[in-house]
Design a protein that fits this description.
Chains A, B: It comes from Amnibacterium flavum. The first copy, chain A, is α/β, with parallel strands linked by helices and 303 residues long. Chain A is built from ten helices and twelve strands. At the A-B interface, helix 4 of A face helix 4 of B. Chain A binds a DNA duplex (25 and 25 nucleotides) through helix 3.
Chain lengths: 303, 303
DNA sequence: CTCTCTTACGGCTGGCGTAATGATT
DNA sequence: AATCATTACGCCAGCCGTAAGAGAG
């Protein structure tokens, strides 16, 4: 079995269409058809129910197809992790080196704590990797990071990861200094009703991420305003967006404490639920250094 | 990255030699050299320290090489499991079907219990797969079985598996009916000193397996006799070996209770430690039906 | 001189693209 | 007719094998 074939099959299975998958994979549809046919021949069983009475509705998966879709996704992700981890190892001269993912919204002391945690473990070195907003999950799955700090609605589990909640962060609304509410230290959701808001984007694998940073669900009568994109990738981009007067943005108080600009003001919003910051690792990651650092950080939990 | 290349690299890394690995892989050595070189180029880092001052001692691994060796082994095993599971799914008409591995030495009621356990779980079907002696571990790793019954020295953990001990089995020595000890119901290790014994082979991934079925370690003055191969693959082969007068064999009492032949006698050996029978699954196997059946069987433990 | 890995080169296979065909609504 | 997949066929890249080269004991 070949990883390329597997990628081909997974694309077809996910999109339920050879034509669509061929586009996605940047290859011709007949070539894709052949590739999957070869895979089926090698496995000795059909993976897709073809063209019977559904040429319009695309293809359906067989039991074997369902199985290979699940297994194949895992396998492709594992292959990418292997590649990424090897590349990273190639960049370090010696010893074990772990990548700690964080975003510009992560409280600084936590990043420092991660580096400090490694000092206590012999032969293990942790280096920080800054990730784009909302890519923490993806970074762990693809192997760009071994561990990552994650922000999520309190108590929401994240599939595929082992997460330990560490802190709760109050939330603030960021507005320009010349905003009508800028002189208020704290505001309510009612005050913010109808305000244009920065598009938070969405985080693969983190359900509820988008709603979290839109301040949803909001009580009746405090509707959300226009959502303005594109999503910010970092805190700096978020501040620039706000300073330009295009709308407000919701952030954690930790962000506002760490980044100060005189053209942007942070207003505490007490009726927005706090967000939880946690440290995450892949459930199936059994590498001892990863476990050790993870456990050390877990012990710092204030929850 | 390609699985073929990965297999090439893993072979070289494990054997610490291109020449040896090329033989193992049934390909020419220069082709293998190129294949690994291509992989290194793709990854952008060296995996092996070449030909510096060790052309005699073979190659050494770099940090990246060590990483890719570990990751690659896992990945290749995972690929094989994916393939095997898909093939199995292709053979079942519908629904979830799990393979329960056992050997001819597994107490029958446990196999029956596994099938019965599935009846209580909706949409899950368990079917038995008979494995060769000592291949239980390998079967789980390669995906031939999702669960398997395993026999091991009491309390010995098996790497890579989650195991629940279920029962302890007394052990017996199998001898021909015309053997000098055949009329005795029970014997000691001292009685068996110097007897020729069937080669138990070894089980990949189960440390101590060989010693277990040789009755080792034996007290001083009760030395092991000649070890006669080839290893038996099933209980029937073992009985035939013994009946032919080529030597004795050590088995669990459960085996002797289940298989009766008038040309072979089972003698209880009280001073051999009991073996533990447990049910095993892969640590990282998170599929709910596997967990459910495993947990149901774990609840049957008498330990 | 032997052992081992690398470089060079030629041949072949396998996978892709284009074009044509089939099946269904 | 339009859509979606398969079959037919030619082309090319990549991989393997053979042969030659290079460095160390």
């Amino acid at each position: 079995m070949d990883l390329r074939q597997l990628r081909h099959f997974v694309a077809v299975a996910e999109l339920r269409s050879f034509t669509a998958a061929a586009g996605e994979l940047h290859m011709s549809q007949p070539a894709l058809s052949q590739s999957v046919a070869r895979l089926e021949k090698e496995l000795g069983c059909a993976l897709l129910h073809r063209n019977k009475q559904n040429p319009g509705q695309g293809v359906l998966l067989t039991v074997a197809g369902e199985t290979l879709l699940e297994e194949g996704r895992d396998l492709i992700a594992a292959a990418q992790r292997a590649e990424e981890r090897t590349r990273r190892a190639g960049r370090t001269s010696s010893g074990v080196s772990l990548a700690m993912g964080f975003t510009s919204g992560t409280p600084q002391h936590l990043v420092a704590a991660a580096l400090a945690a490694a000092d206590g473990i012999d032969g293990v070195d942790v280096y920080p990797v800054e990730l784009d907003w909302g890519h923490e999950h993806q970074a762990i799955v693809t192997g760009r990071a071994d561990l990552a700090y994650l922000q999520y609605a309190e108590g929401t589990p994240v599939a595929g990861h082992t997460v330990t909640g560490l802190e709760l962060l109050e939330r603030v609304a960021l507005v320009p200094t010349n905003h009508r509410l800028a002189h208020r230290g704290r505001v309510t959701l009612a005050d913010l009703a109808g305000e244009a808001i920065l598009d938070p984007g969405s985080a693969e694998g983190v359900p509820g991420y988008r709603d979290l940073w839109l301040g949803e669900p909001r009580p009746a009568g405090m509707p959300i305003g226009r959502i303005v994109g594109p999503p910010a990738r970092t805190v700096q981009e978020m501040y620039s967006f706000v300073a330009a007067g295009r709308g407000m943005a919701i952030a954690s108080k930790a962000v506002a404490d760490q980044f100060q600009r005189d053209d942007v003001v942070a207003l505490v919003v007490p009726d927005l639920a706090s967000v939880e910051v946690g440290v995450a690792r892949l459930v199936e990651d059994r590498r001892p250094p990863v476990r050790q650092v993870f456990d050390a950080l877990s012990r710092l939990s204030r929850l």
